[in-house]
Amino acid sequence: MQTRMRMNKLLALLHHHAELLMNDFEKYLKPNREDFGKDPFGYSALARHKWGTAATMAGFPIDISKPATSEELKNPILWMSQAHALSEAAVAVLKKDQNFQAMPLAVRSACDSQYCAVGLMLVGYSLEICLKSMIIIQKGVEGYKEVESKNRHHRLHDLANFVPNLSKKELAILRGLTHFVYWAGRYPDPGSGREDEAEEIFEIAEKYRITAHDLFKLSTKVMRHAQEVTA
After folding, report:
1. What angle do CA 104, 109, 114 make, to 5 degrees?
2. CB neighbour burial string for 58-80, b if at least 16 within 10 angstroms, e if fewer
3. What whole-number distance in Å separates Cα of residue 166 and Cα of residue 179?
4. Contact 8, 16 (CB under 8 A)
5. Which of 27, 83, 180, 223 could form a disulfide with 184 if both were Cys (CB 3.0 to 4.6 A apart)?
6. Residue 131: domain span
């Protein structure tokens, strides 16, 4: 009888510690901007560790105490979540009107155009990561490694060659976004000898009469295709 009571107490204690441990894990896995404030670099580089913790809790152990392997870093779930993070960042930028009060009045409008260019860069990056994650899913990690060098670029219209039924206008949108990923979202200048690329953005915009609605409709189309690939 006493042995059974001791066993019950031990089991209750183990259950209690398991609950505490689970609570710690859940707290660790929740977004926490206070932790970002304390250590912005460390917090922002923890995605692989947090995914490893979640996978371990689900019964797929990943040793996050060791340096990441190529297979872990090419997990398509991490790539899809990165694409979603970039998409949300783009929405946050483009939905927020800025007054640029710190800038002289004469350049505020120019600064707003550059601000929107940053938003388009984020849209482009989100699509790039989404497209590459689909390639990883289709080919597997080892298969992707074989073609990785061919895909080590930002040309969205080339990366999207497996997405069905893309129109000429949609491919033109991807070419336009490619400019913002490569340079227009980061610099006012594409680089010496490449000044014509600045004019190409206007040519694409005018030829295909691209609106913000067209842009986000295409983004949604690509994201939906990702759902079909993962189904």
Report:
1. 105
2. eeeebebeeebeeebebbbebbb
3. 19
4. no
5. 180
6. 69-230
Residue 166 placed within a domain: yes
Given pLDDT bands bounded at 50, 70 and 90, which one contains residue 20?
very low
Greater confidence, 74 or 1?
Answer: 74
Residue 3 resides in a domain: no
pLDDT tens-digit series, residues 105-128 = 999 999 999 999 999 999 999 999
C-alpha 157/C-alpha 138 separation (Å) is: 18
- Give domain status of residue 46, yes or no: no
The per-residue pLDDT of the chain, averaged, comes to 88
Q: Tell me, yes or no, whether 61 lies in a domain.
A: no
Q: What is the identity of the amino acid at 143?
A: G
Least-confidence region, from 167-171, 187-191, 224-228: 224-228
Long-range contacts of 150-159 (CB under 8 A, 24+ apart): 154/124, 154/128, 154/178, 154/181, 154/182, 156/124, 156/127, 156/128, 156/131, 156/181, 159/128, 159/131, 159/132, 159/135
Report the number of distinct structural domains present in the chain: 1
Say how many C-beta atoms besides its own lie within 10 A of residue 23's C-beta: 10
